[in-house]
Design brief:
This protein is of the alpha+beta class. It has a single domain (5-173), classed as Gcn5-related N-acetyltransferase (GNAT) (Aminopeptidase). It is built from 5 helices and 7 strands. Strand 4 (90-98), helix 4 and strand 5 form a beta-alpha-beta unit. Helix 1 (15-31) packs across helix 2. It is globular, with a radius of gyration of 15 Å. The two termini are 19 Å apart.
Length: 174
């Protein structure tokens, strides 16, 4: 990773700048008509979601430019929507965001590696993720990370169906 970048755990005081990053990173999805929560979530939602698991941020010159959250167990709302989120020892990947100006530099991959190590250290045996079916580029990204489709859900209030994907954890993830 670029030496001008540093990774650290989320702090509650990061909620406002992380919200700004999420809005910027998810704007293209909003423009596609996909009303992801991160498109316009408020600071309190950001804080609650980040503190609902383990969240990392990447900073450059004191600004948050990327983030990823893992939760174990997945959220109650997700567990109500799919049995896949109730699978024992399954962590969940949430709200991956990279500043549009810094995409393609491996920031998401670095955070994904940290998330897998974190989940494996907590004896998770697999990781799940859900994303909008029309967000084909995200579905392809998760497939490239080893995820396979296991279910389809519809979050209340969303304009799209979501694909639920899962991936086993193995020795190389620890």
């Amino acid at each position: 990773m670029d030496p001008a970048l540093s990774v650290r755990p989320f702090r509650a005081s990061d909620a406002a700048p992380l919200t700004d990053l999420l809005h910027a990173a998810y704007a293209e999805l909003g423009a596609m008509g996909l009303n992801y929560t991160a498109v316009d979530q408020d600071v309190e939602t950001t804080r609650a979601r980040a503190l609902g698991g383990q969240c990392w941020v990447i900073e450059r010159a004191g600004q948050i430019v990327a983030s990823l959250t893992m939760s174990l167990p997945p959220s109650d709302g997700l567990r109500e929507l799919t049995a896949e989120a109730r699978v024992g020892d399954r962590a969940w990947l949430n709200q991956v965001a990279v500043s549009p100006a810094l995409r393609g530099r491996g920031l998401a991959a670095d955070l994904w590696h940290r998330g897998r190590r974190w989940a494996a250290a907590r004896q998770a045996t697999s990781i799940g993720v859900d994303t909008a079916i029309p967000a084909v580029h995200l579905v392809r990204l998760y497939e490239s990370w080893g995820f396979e489709t296991v279910d389809t859900i519809h979050w209340p209030g969303k304009t799209y169906d979501s694909v639920v994907m899962a991936r086993p954890l193995g020795p190389s993830d620890a």
